[in-house]
């Protein structure tokens, strides 16, 4: 639940300062919180001078807000609200509409908003967003809803605690990078998993086996090692928002099974796993999950053809992504149990890939729902990059031309506007599309 604060700004000489508009709008905003999923955690008394603004600013910081709305009830000069603009918190500058349209000017609120946005505030490190309208107005609700979605992603990237279990997969040097957003990453060796495996009780494995109801190409007895791994992973993941797991080569070599079905079944229960030790991919997954309200997954671009781009991974996706029946099958390469085989459901997707140097790729498109390779797969038949529509081949050229690591973190639904706003709040540079197919790439 995001915490929002509200500071109304008034100039007593204006008629609109005496109409109780700040009280009515705060009550409406409180009601809107129940619908949009935020708490109105702090409401200041109307601010009419710099001293009151400084006191409101101090109280707003103490409230631990995710967003502060500075509400222009009427026009006011900059000295009245400048202390609020200097706060190191996300700010929304909001003007109420005029209560009448003829006769004496009641508020002049939008002019106050204009004045505020024209200011230079030395030292401010984050942008602000403007809002206009009553809380009941559709445009206001849409604009605020978009910001709330973006800030949920920001909160995930700043406050999540994740486990890096085993480090990156061998030779995947691009996965050495860590998020530069404040996310807490705790690195632990695979010894923690081996210890957890040894502690799994046969009776707990029996319980998992007793409720197993998924189609499988294996008899139940052959799946017991994967159930044991599932229980061990759940124990190691306890207390973390997500786990970046080095799931090969040590796990199949030591346990005789692949980790993918265990990861998939844990994802069904709300866990977030990133394969191959991809912490930056995990960060994208957590942000996408916070924005969409649905689990996010990592996928490879594994083929390009007349149907588009084949997106695929080894079989760790949750059933929420299934566009048809699921079944547990042997791993395509090692032949070991087990991976979850299923088509990815048709529909729009959105993606976020964080990159070193506080850069990011925001992308999206549409999955056809047609299954491809064994594991979880489908075709990306329409693509977009930072909201710009691209042909699949142009998308591929942009991805390769920017030398983006090979995991795409994708979530369900069209959320590129929220992802772009997320990047703005965090000060991340969003890379533009680079669809030139004849260019060269410098590996420097």
UniProtKB/TrEMBL annotation:
Keywords: Carbohydrate metabolism, Isomerase
Keyword check for Isomerase: yes
GO process terms (BP): monosaccharide metabolic process
Cellular component, GO annotation: cytoplasm
Keyword Isomerase included in the entry's annotation: yes
GO molecular function, one term: intramolecular oxidoreductase activity, interconverting aldoses and ketoses
InterPro entries: Fucose_isomerase_N/cen_sf
Protein name stated in the entry: L-fucose isomerase
Organism from which the protein derives: Calidithermus roseus
High-level lineage: Bacteria, Thermotogati, Deinococcota, Deinococci, Thermales
